[in-house]
Amino acid sequence: MQWKQALVHFEQYLKIERGLSINSINSYSLDVQALMSFHDKNSSCTPLNCSKEDVQRFLYEEAKEVEARSQARRISGLKSFFNFLIFEGYREDSPIDLIESPKLGRKLPTVLSLSEIEQLLHCIDLSHAQGHRNRAMLETLYGSGLRVSELVDLKISDLYFDENMMLINGKGDKQRLVPLGAFSKKFIQLYIDDVRILSKISKEDRDTLFLNRNGKKLTRAMIFTIVRQLGQVVGIEKKISPHTFRHSFATHLLENGADLRTIQTLMGHESITTTEVYMHLDTQHLSQVLKDFHPRNN
C-alpha cells in the first residue's frame, strides 16, 4: 500500500467511522501529507514499512521550522493515522508510539471586555449591505458562542424565531440547540428582510444564512479578515479572531454566575475539562472565592 491509497482510506475512516467534520479531516490529512512529502524526497518508505527512525527524522527536520504546539498537533495526527493502519490490520505496530510530544503549557485564550465588544460592534458601517451582515454575524458569534465553522454553515431553516432558538451542527455532525439572543435575533431579521432578500443567491446556497457579495456561502477566512480589520479600526492591540468572541461569550457568562455545565452544553464541548479553562480567566470570581472562604480573610 502506497501513501496516497492509505490516505484515501484514512480519510474515509475519519468521515464514516469517527464522524469527524471536514475541517478536522483536512487537518489529519495534512499531517499525513507532510510525512508523505518528506519521504517522497528522502527515502522509499511506505505506510507499511515506515519505521520509528523514519518518523523521527521527519519530525527532527520539521522542528527546525515549526513551534512546539504545531509539532504536538502533528504527532497527534500521525498517531491517529498509524493506529488506523493497525486497526485495519495493515500493520502490527505503530512507529510513533514511543515518540513523545513536546511539553506544552496551558495557553489561556484571549478574551475581550464588554466595552471592547461594544466598540467592535458599534464601529461597523451600516451604510452598506455588508455592514448589516457583519453586525448580524458578530452579534451571533458573541450572543451564542458559536464556532466560526458553525456560523458559516448556519441555515435559515435552522433558525426558530418563535422559540428564540437555533439548531447548530457542531463538530463531528453533533447537533445542539442554542438560545438566540435578543440582539442576534434583531440583526439577523434585519439582514434577512432588508439585505439578503436583494441578493442574487446561488442555487446551492439558498438556505445558507450569511452570504458574500456573489450570493455564495462565506468562507472561514473571510470572517477572520472581517474581525481583524474591525480590531484595527477600533485600535484593539490584542490578537483577535472570530474565536475570541466565543471565548468572551463563555467568560462573561461565568463572570455573571452561570455554571460550568450549562456553559459546556451551550458551547458544545464534549468534555467539561475543555470548559474549565474559563475558570482560570475569571480572576474576579477566584479572588471573591478566596476572600469569602479562606480562614485568613475572615
In short:
It is built from 14 helices and three strands. By secondary structure, it is mainly alpha-helical. The chain has a three-stranded antiparallel beta sheet.
List the helices and strands and how they pair.
Blueprint: H1 3-16, H2 22-42, H3 52-63, H4 68-87, H5 114-122, H6 129-144, H7 148-152, E1 159-160, E2 165-169, E3 175-179, H8 182-195, H9 220-234, H10 242-255, H11 260-267, H12 272-275, H13 277-281, H14 283-293
Antiparallel strand pairs: 1-2, 2-3
Helix pairs in contact: 1-2, 2-4, 6-8, 6-10
Could you describe the 3D structure shown?
The chain is mainly α and 298 residues long. The protein folds into two domains: 85 residues, DNA polymerase, domain 1 (Orthogonal Bundle); 175 residues, hpI Integrase, Chain A (Orthogonal Bundle), CATH 1.10.443.10. Helices cover 56% and strands 4% of the residues. It has 14 helices and three strands. The protein has a three-stranded antiparallel beta sheet with strand order 1-2-3. Strand 2 and strand 3 form a beta hairpin. Helix 1 runs antiparallel to helix 2, helix 6 runs antiparallel to helix 8 and helix 6 crosses helix 10. The longest helix is centred in the N-terminal third of the chain and has 21 residues. The radius of gyration is 23 Å and the shape is globular. The model has no long low-confidence stretch (mean pLDDT 87).
